[in-house]
Amino acid sequence: MSGTFIAFIILTAIIGGYIIDYQKNKLKWKSNNQQNDSEIEDLKITIEKMTKRIENLEAIVADDSFTGSDSSPSSFSIEMDDLESMKENNRKTVAKKAKTKGD
């Protein structure tokens, strides 16, 4: 009877050790995933900002009134308030310029 009891205690200690290790590893993985998720979110925000800036720069380049000698880049604002309408205008302007230059 006492041999069975000792074997049960040893088995319980071994299984308990594995469960504790598993929980520690689980916490480490969760921490790493949260850190990776925050880095991914930061990268998404940066990509979104850069995309908006590129669209605005395309609009500046495609704008007929913006020639290097007539106006200075500082007089043209790159940051825009109404991004959706500006985005659509940029696409139309760039498409028009691409059509005329391709002909």
Describe the structure in your own words:
Helices cover 79% and strands 0% of the residues. It is an all-alpha fold and 103 residues long. It has a domain at 36-103. The radius of gyration is 31 Å and the shape is rod-shaped. The relative contact order is 0.07.
- What is the averaged pLDDT score? 79
> Stretches where pLDDT falls below 50 for ≥5 residues?
none
- What is the overall silhouette? rod-shaped
Report how far the terminal alpha carbons are from each other: 96 Å
Helix content: over 70%
Count the beta strands. Answer: 0
Structural class: mainly alpha
Tally of helical runs: 2
Order of helices and strands: HH
Work out the radius of gyration: 31 Å
Biggest β-sheet strands, sense, barrel? none
Strand fraction band?
A: under 5%
Notable traits:
103 residues; mainly alpha
In short:
79% of the residues lie in helices and 0% in strands.
SSE diagram, text form:
Elements: H1 2-62, H2 83-102
